[in-house]
């Protein structure tokens, strides 16, 4: 980069930081000055060295944590806490300037604001326009196999069945991970890639993944950030920023609309997920891989190809298969999850699961409405099978997942409720089972808003496990199993009626002293 | 070693009578400062807090803090065997699983020992924060008992509203409704007959009369009752025990239905 140019940018940064009080992150810098993210980081470093005082720096630390088992971490740390944070890392860790700003924002989401606005604008550009987000040109990782043509819209309809399932997986994962609208380019490329690289759908996944990661890297460092530990308060609020961005991805829905039913499920799902949060969902195992890869890439801008190869050779090779099994399982699970949101799939990820599984069930319901009867039978049949599958799966991935969970639970939990609100006001037809006041089980098909459901899920999730035992005794397992999730509201009146008796029939309800005084 | 000698033994009898209907089993906690009890009723709607300070006893010895789980009905049965003028002594040895009630007749010519088995009770001790109440009503305890009894024949909840005008107890039932208003009245011959209302802001709360009636069993303990109300807190119905402590009843108000929905059912 020419010296003069560099100087100009540095001046610009100065005015941005000092006058406009903007948070200048390397991502933003890279996109707005059309320089590679690496260069952007170096520029920022230079800037920091020049203007030591009068500004606050947020560093991105990445490396292996000291704790056992070692886990790879990327952490955003303010300049003042840098030495302290370094202690947490084992041996060397890479330290890069993430952003410079006049002061550390109180609301960590502010760190991302500028980026999101920028990303939004870039994606709002017409499809035909090529911009740095679309072609991902400044990403640290490039893949020569991937051809980008902006004019074309994916022909993913052609995708084979298993592949679409994979799509589902990967898309889910990507949405969840990226939470930005970077999906478009990926989507359009993916089908092209698959014939190129191989017939094996597993390869496709790989490609998709590397794609995802690539975009990750450039468009959304938040992913990496998501992996970060809670030491930095940022990862909570960030969800909001994500949300604003993701909600703009209307064009994404169009793209997804062309994907076959399976993927559409994924779409619904993805939408829901995008709205509901960055859910690594069931695919947490691969999600984790993805995350790890993202981390790696994040860390190794320079030897990108190397990493790519390494990734595909070791990690992906093995894991793809696992992943694939998962997506198969998932189909079963999807079918059943309608009725059994309480799959004890992974205890360690319980909340996670509950959040994720329910939307899935919903999506399924939505799409397979007419199949419901059939579905049920299948469910009954599969419920046992599923149990074992699930267990197996649990076995397979629990260890991997645990890590992810540990990393992500925080952010996810926070994001979920928050993001539920902006979720599309779509109303869906949903089969609900509830216990009416005479104690009968009532199945009804109702239109239900997403938010409402989300809320209910949240409330009921705590109870699911409790009720499960009781509910499974009914003669229709699937429906009965569902009731804990949705029929919760229905079960309550009975309780209430009981509680009401001592008082006036229509009067207010007796409060509990424990709601006023705490146990000591 | 625990030894508490209470000259006015009838006090203890009255205390037991006042709480045994509300609470079945409870831990009596003895410390150097006094003899106390805190217990919730089985439905966790009401809470009793009893305190008998050490100074109120003629002789008070408590070497180390001890918690004695007792069945209040059984304890009451034993205390009923004491005469109203008897001196009651509560004795317990460290590590013992029994407690002894000793009754001495005023003339010292009859001494009875009753030994009662203790029980292990999972105590749920609640932290009761000191609170500023919106309104505090002090009135003759008999008057309050009468109001509760009267209203419970008409409805099963009472709305207690305190305004500048006074305190209003109202109920509504199948046969009709009732309102009883007590105005502030300090111009009486005896101070214990006064009705005093301290109000910071108007408050109106609904309570189950069943519990209120149960609280009024403590009427013999004190001539006056103090009712403290705050819109976001349980009501406190307090009966002072002459110069040595109190019995306080806390009762959670009835809550409007919709508010309640936000709370998951336990």
Number of H- or I-type helical stretches of chain B: 5
Overall geometry of chain A = extended
Just give the CATH class of the largest domain in chain B.
Alpha Beta
Count of DSSP strands of chain A: 8
CATH class of one domain in chain A: Alpha Beta
Count of helix runs of chain A:
20
CATH topology of the largest domain in chain B: Proliferating Cell Nuclear Antigen
Shape of chain B from CA axes? globular
Largest sheet of chain B: 9 strands, antiparallel
Question: What's the CATH H-level homologous superfamily of one domain in chain A?
Answer: DNA polymerase delta, p66 (Cdc27) subunit, wHTH domain
User: How many domains, in number, for the residues of chain B?
Assistant: 2
Helix content of chain B: 10-25%
Which residues of chain B form runs of ≥5 with pLDDT under 50? 259-266
GO biological process, one term (chain B): leading strand elongation
Family (chain B): Belongs to the PCNA family.
Subcellular location (chain B): Nucleus
Organism (chain B): Cucumis sativus
Folded structure, characterized:
The complex is a heterodimer of chains A (520) and B (266). Chain A has a domain at 1-105: DNA polymerase delta, p66 (Cdc27) subunit, wHTH domain (50s Ribosomal Protein L17, Chain: A), CATH 3.90.1030. A 4-stranded antiparallel β-sheet of chain A has the order 1-4-2-3. Chain A has a two-stranded antiparallel ribbon with strand order 5-6. The longest helix of chain A has 49 residues, at 372-420. Chain A is built from 20 helices and 8 strands. In chain A, helix 9 (201-219) packs across helix 15 (304-337), helix 13 runs parallel beside helix 17 and helix 14 packs parallel to helix 17. Chain A is an alpha+beta fold and 520 residues long. Helices cover 16% and strands 43% of the residues of chain B. With 266 residues, chain B is of the alpha+beta class. Chain B is built from 5 helices and 20 strands. Chain A binds chain B through residues 459, 462-463, 492, 495-496, 502-504, 507-520, and chain B through 40, 43-47, 124-129, 155-157, 172, 206, 208, 210, 233-234, 250-257, 260-261, 263-266. Strand 7 of chain A pairs antiparallel with strand 20 of chain B.
